[in-house]
TrEMBL record:
Coiled coil: none annotated. This is Cobalt transporter. The chain crosses the membrane at residues 7-28, 80-101, 113-132, 152-174, 181-202, 241-259. Keywords: Membrane, Transmembrane, Transmembrane helix.
Length: 275
């Protein structure tokens, strides 16, 4: 049965990855292209300013992958790999959780458990890390701090997932003692407090490019467009909502189909034993 759950998770992730990539290709990638164009134009302005000031600039080498390859093959593969990983993650989490709930609470609907896991996964894997460090398009961020920024993001992501697991275990442990609703509230509150403390201890970054100015303080090239940052973040959130919604709904539907296919077999086994 565990292999069937994993297979269901991978299939759900594949479907979610394809659908979310289609959205990203038509909505998110054009925003990325705007950011890439800004970065190139800004580099030209800085180079011209350096030449005007008598300095020397060093041109960057040509791009290894074209934009067409990046926004199609690169983005597609990346989206599918992430979705498959999340599908496997949900399947493993469901297998572990169902081994507890299915035995202790036989009346529990597996589809409801899958739905709850989808919501939990979205919050832990994407929601909290995004709240701590919102996604930025290309050209936003200092190259000198990329290592620190990556480390901080990975830290808050791992902490969020681990703390969510602890919160779920706490809620399940409290459920027989204080009831399902109250235990869920206690577990959720404990998670929010722990995550809030974690985020407060991590560094903050605000590295949106400012306007390029000459020696006289005059603006020779504008700062990074705020609307591009806003659109990128909105479409990133929407893309993740689509991915997690499709993943969760598909996984729940497959679980329902599996349950229906197993019921007749179970009935035939019982009838055979009685006869």
């Amino acid at each position: 049965m565990e292999k069937k759950f994993i297979g269901a998770g991978l299939l759900s992730g594949l479907i979610a990855g394809i659908i979310s990539f289609v959205f990203a290709r038509f909505y998110l990638e054009p925003v990325v292209s705007k950011a890439v164009d800004y970065e190139a134009e800004r580099s030209e302005a800085e180079e011209a300013l350096a030449h005007a000031g008598g300095g020397h600039s060093h041109g960057e080498g040509g791009e290894v992958f074209t934009r067409a390859m990046q926004e199609n093959l690169g983005a597609g593969v990346g989206n599918l790999v992430f979705a498959l990983c999340m599908g496997a993650f949900v399947a493993v989490a469901f297998t572990v959780l169902w081994s507890h709930l299915g035995n202790r609470y036989p009346a529990t609907d597996a589809r409801a458990v899958a739905g709850a896991l989808g919501a939990i996964g979205f919050v832990a894997v994407f929601g909290v890390p995004f709240f701590a460090y919102p996604a930025n398009p290309p050209a936003v961020g200092d190259d000198d701090t990329i290592g620190e920024r990556t480390g901080a993001f990975l830290t808050v992501t791992i902490a969020s997932v681990v703390l969510m697991i602890v919160a779920v275990v706490l809620a399940l442990w409290l459920r027989p003692r204080i009831g399902g609703l109250v235990s869920a509230v206690v577990g959720g509150a404990a998670y929010v407090i722990a995550v809030g403390i974690t985020i407060a201890l991590l560094p903050t970054f605000s590295e949106v490019p400012e306007p390029v100015r000459n020696d006289a303080g005059q603006i020779v090239f504008s700062g990074f467009p705020a609307d591009v940052v806003a659109d990128f973040r909105v479409y990133t959130i929407t893309n993740q909502v689509i991915l997690w919604t499709v993943l969760t709904v598909t996984f729940a539907l497959i679980l329902g189909a599996m349950a229906r296919s197993e019921s007749p077999a179970t009935s035939r086994t019982v009838d055979a034993a009685q006869s």
